[in-house]
Amino acid sequence: MKNILGREIPDYIEGYGKVKPFNGASASYGIKTKSKVKLTSVKPGDKKLLSSINEALDKVKIKDGMTISFHHHLRNGDFILNNIVYEIAKRGIKNIKIAASSIFPIHEPLVEHMKNGVVTGIVTNYISGPVAEAVSRGYLKTPVVMMTHGGRPRSIESGEIHIDVAFIAAPTADSYGNINGVYGNAACGSLGYAVPDAQYADKVVAITDNLVPYPACPIEISQEYVDYVVKVDSIGNPDGIVSGTTKIAKDPVGLKIAQMAARVMDASGYIKNNMSFQTGAGGTSLAVAAELEKIMKDRGIVGSFAAGGITGYIVDMLDEGLFRNLFDVQCFDLKAVESYRDNPKHQGMGGSMYGSPSNKGAVVNNLDVMILGATEIDTDFNVNVTTGSNGIIMGGSGGHSDTAAGAKLAIVVTNLVKGRLPIIKDKVTTITTPGESIDVVVTERGIAINPKRKDLIEKLEKSNLPIITIEELKDKAEKMTGKPEEVKFSDDIVAVVEYRDGTVIDVVKKVLG
Amino acid sequence: MKNILGREIPDYIEGYGKVKPFNGASASYGIKTKSKVKLTSVKPGDKKLLSSINEALDKVKIKDGMTISFHHHLRNGDFILNNIVYEIAKRGIKNIKIAASSIFPIHEPLVEHMKNGVVTGIVTNYISGPVAEAVSRGYLKTPVVMMTHGGRPRSIESGEIHIDVAFIAAPTADSYGNINGVYGNAACGSLGYAVPDAQYADKVVAITDNLVPYPACPIEISQEYVDYVVKVDSIGNPDGIVSGTTKIAKDPVGLKIAQMAARVMDASGYIKNNMSFQTGAGGTSLAVAAELEKIMKDRGIVGSFAAGGITGYIVDMLDEGLFRNLFDVQCFDLKAVESYRDNPKHQGMGGSMYGSPSNKGAVVNNLDVMILGATEIDTDFNVNVTTGSNGIIMGGSGGHSDTAAGAKLAIVVTNLVKGRLPIIKDKVTTITTPGESIDVVVTERGIAINPKRKDLIEKLEKSNLPIITIEELKDKAEKMTGKPEEVKFSDDIVAVVEYRDGTVIDVVKKVLG
Fold this sequence. Notes:
The structure is a homodimer. By secondary structure, the first copy, chain A, is α/β, with parallel strands linked by helices. Chain A is built from 15 helices and 30 strands. In chain A, the strands form 6 sheets. A 10-stranded mixed beta sheet of chain A has the order 5-14-13-10-6-7-8-9-29-30. A 9-stranded mixed beta sheet of chain A has the order 18-17-16-15-19-22-26-27-28, with helices on both faces. Chain A has a 3-stranded mixed beta sheet with strand order 21-20-25. In chain A, helix 8 crosses helix 9 (283-299). The longest helix of chain A has 17 residues, at 283-299. Chain A is globular and about 70 Å long. The two termini of chain A are 27 Å apart.
């Protein structure tokens, strides 16, 4: 079977199940059902505070075959996923499925657990480091399911993925299960991605290293969703919580691309009062924000909101009055955490509110401009941020496809060539985000506009921006690098890439050799 | 059939259905299910803003037999319930069931709609004024179902009551359905009681007179739950939003009772650091807060939280540092609204988090002391706040039974005699809250302790408080008033009083003559 993008995908994938093929970014809207939830009610006098992770594992009756979930707000500083799986492994339990909103290099111990059958399934929106590599090498028994930041809450809410136990790393909690991320040694700010887990898991365990007297205000996740609370010495390393990617580009190429992207936004007519904006936390993407900041200041423009994972750069724009509000699903640095804690204009949002296509309207739907990165782009504007050009998994959508689908103007900013490899290709190794959602590709050597955006082509042709076709951009890249060698794959599927609506947009196969 | 309190209740009540008899305050804890939710997803570009209530009625396909819901945060200033039902009536629609968290005198127009069959069912937690009187006279086709503030969200979440359309009066909203109650002409603060309606109704319509640019931060109810937004000229009269009952008692009897109640709290050992406290908004109840305030200040005590409907008096205690936090499901006055808006220690909560017995632990579960009012109390400590001694409905539980069930010390404060009628009786006209949840009754002529609280009796006997039995208290009252005449009722059931778990604790029959 081929899906609408021409990708060969089996009807049925062993260890995944029946495939719903991707059928276009807008194909799945309509009547949706949020799943029922079973819980055990808590009566006056009941206690939730347990003495150890082991006691929690007893209480939730952990057993073979369960799906357990984690949020990734502690990023590469997270201790909780490793500690929980370690304790589970010690019990001789097998066949655990990990539903983690993202997986980082710190989660390397999972590789051993994959090899010995403790962990046989992973569902995640982003995966990098040793675990990603091990998946690509075929060490996980079933294909990893790659979701999006909006697709995961959709899947959880719909009941497609059922979480038996959610383990919520809680920077601050009280003994009755109220949680916030704004205080404590591992303060990470918004806990947006943990919200659906708390709401829909059969059992919810909060794990904290900062147990405070009741109530742990401001409450981000409420006692009404939490079964048990465990106090541990440390839930994470603050140094790893702040993402290493949140540094603004200083190199001339990155800055040039950022300036061009800002000019594209301007020429397209999107820089105006009440505009909304989101950018990734990569260096070039952040540099676009800096360019936008200059223009907004110069012209006295006040935008509606900036959204996303929030960095200090975006907080500055709020503080300068360039946006009325921020929507924050995840704080990337301490400045963002403090602003989220102290400024009521800095509004939190759960993962569903951020990006689900199956609720009554996600925040991404209201984005004017989204600045995105890419590992590869093809001449149909399909974007890969899942695998490297070597075929190895090194990321995933995160909010890429969600924001691209929602934004009126989705701009990919990228160097034309990276590490002597062309970024624009005939076919991307893996499709993460469909080309229909991408409007413009900005590189230092030219700008390509998606042909379906005739309105944009018309506007931008009037500018003196270097507009060329995506094919011309590809040719330029290949002239610099030569045509790259094709990566060789086996037939074994190691990852199923779900679009935000749960259809399969692509699969990743095991790399040969 | 008699329930555990000896109340005669049919197995089946016409217009209500099969009866689950009340079987004790703790009988229903255990495994619970939250209902699934059906919704229509909203895609990028879709608009939610409609031009009129009539357009909204078209969009939600309003029709005979539907259940429509309302919150009561605008109290006796609410225009929305009347306006919606007016438009529905104009369409010739019949058999509407109103699920309103409370009903006030301003809702008098419902009486006509009841008489002409537009409205044939009412589910509410509190009902006063002409509608209550009309129900008592038998004008509603089916018995009104009286729930509690915690029982209503339980019922909605469980699917027992299914809301077809929730109409949410929104003091501030944006065109995409984000709502807050802290700005606008009809600012009412917390929108806690509207939360389950937004989450579980098939369709949700926000009606606002303060449409602001997106996003309407701070968001209390999110766009992910709202289908449509309607802008009207006015959603309510601010004068009616501030409850008339929130004036502290100045009369010597009220003050004496308050002082005695505070001494009971003290002698019982509940006035100490980390204590939690809630009081009703009646004059004597508020006077207890004032007494507590003095003691806490004198002794340098810092409590954990105060909860409930919040008044300026309680805000003062927060501001003075006497409590670390407030939990607010409803603001009773402007000072509470402003504090809720500006002070992050003043935490909002939804109706379920406040009082549902079927989630993972409501805030009421953590109450140390609850100060309650009463219309009647019987010698089993059962309390009536549903009907007057004349048998006419004049209130309802609100949070009475929820807080009484949760609090470690539930104190009823009341004059022994009101309007020449005794408050303590052999049998209350209607049981709202079971005696097992009431620990102490404080009157100006004596204090009765529930015999099951042997610990309290022991502690309080050591004080020089006037402890007597409830029977003695009853005798004292009757000596002053004589034995009151029995009210005569027909056999027609006009109200079914549900305990917070959905069992039937009592019924109200039509008054004869």
